[in-house]
Design goal:
The chain is mostly helical. It has one domain: Winged helix-like DNA-binding domain superfamily/Winged helix DNA-binding domain (Arc Repressor Mutant, subunit A), CATH 1.10.10. It is built from 4 helices and 2 strands. It has a two-stranded antiparallel sheet. α2 crosses α4. The radius of gyration is 15 Å and the shape is globular. 13% of the residues are buried.
Amino acid sequence: MHPIPDNNILLERITVNPAIMLGKPTIRGTRLTIEHLLKAMAGGLNFEELQEDYPFLEPDDLLACLLYAAKLVENEKVYAVAS
């Protein structure tokens, strides 16, 4: 079984640079956006399938994407809207 990595170390895999992909978060050292990977996983692709297209991809990169998304919604506020 894969050991559970430290969240801070996982998030170091993600970089934001205004000069790369218009500042969208990417996997460090690449132009592969977190958005692209999340959509691919939501579409049903698994790690092995993603790695066929992106051989540099590591399992912890996908964990970092999921953690990043979780952090974005962690403090999200939901308000009831009157109907």
